Amino acid sequence: MPKYDHIIFDWQGVLEQANGLNDELINWMRKRNDDFSFSILTNFPADFSVRLKKMGIDDLFEVVSSPKNSPVRKPDPRAYQLILTKIEKSADRCLFIDDSSTNVIAAKDFGIDSIHYKNNSQLFKEFNKIKL
User: Fold this and answer.
1) How many CB atoms are closer than 10 A to CB 90?
2) Bond into 77 cis (ω within 30)
3) Which residues of the chain fall below pLDDT 70?
4) What is the domain partition of the chain in residue ranges?
5) DSSP 22-54
6) Which residues contact 28 (CB under 8 A, 6 or more apart)?
7) How far apart are CA 30 and CA 104, in angstroms?
8) Assigned CATH class of 6-129
9) Cβ partners under 8 Å of residue 36, min gap 6
10) pLDDT at position 104, please?
11) What is the reported pLDDT for 1?
């Protein structure tokens, strides 16, 4: 049985980048949808129910936690607790990916294994290291 069954992504800088949607990562997620469930934990204040639907990716995410529906933001430990409660998973079953080192450190301190995202090449190398 794999260590993780859920991956929590940051939105801005990971799933959405300056040049638009991170299609390479979205395609990987679609291929791995049977192996993992996915959610978004973001400080980006958008209406994600509309945004994700317009992008055609709303089916990928179990939960979206953003300032629109959450009173706390990363790196507050309560933000990590809230997303875990919403997805009904324990920290040890999840992997968190964010482009902010502050948020990655906070998630690790909370007990969630995390990857500091720099680019897709680096992320996929990290995935290979941990056998995703």
Assistant:
1) 11
2) no
3) 1-2
4) 6-129
5) -HHHHHHHHHTTTT-EEEEE----S-HHHHHHH
6) 124
7) 24
8) alpha beta
9) 4, 5, 6, 7, 29
10) 98
11) 53
84, 94 contact by CB (below 8 A): yes
The torsion defined by the Cα of 52, 53, 59 and 63, in degrees rounded to 10, comes to 50
The pLDDT assigned to 23 comes to 97
Contact residues for 131 (Cβ-Cβ < 8 A; gap 6+): 2
| Placement of tokens 């997620």 in the chain | 29
Query: Pick from 69, 77, 7: which is nearest to 35 by CA?
Result: 7
User: CA gyration radius for the chain?
Assistant: 13
User: What's the pLDDT at 2?
Assistant: 64
Tokens of 131: 């056998």
What secondary structure does DSSP assign to the chain, as a single string? --S-SEEEE-TBTTTEETTEE-HHHHHHHHHTTTT-EEEEE----S-HHHHHHHHT-GGGEEEEE-TTT-S--TTSHHHHHHHHHHHT--GGGEEEEES-HHHHHHHHHHT-EEEE-S-HHHHHHHHHHTT-
Torsion sign over Cα 88, 105, 114, 73: positive
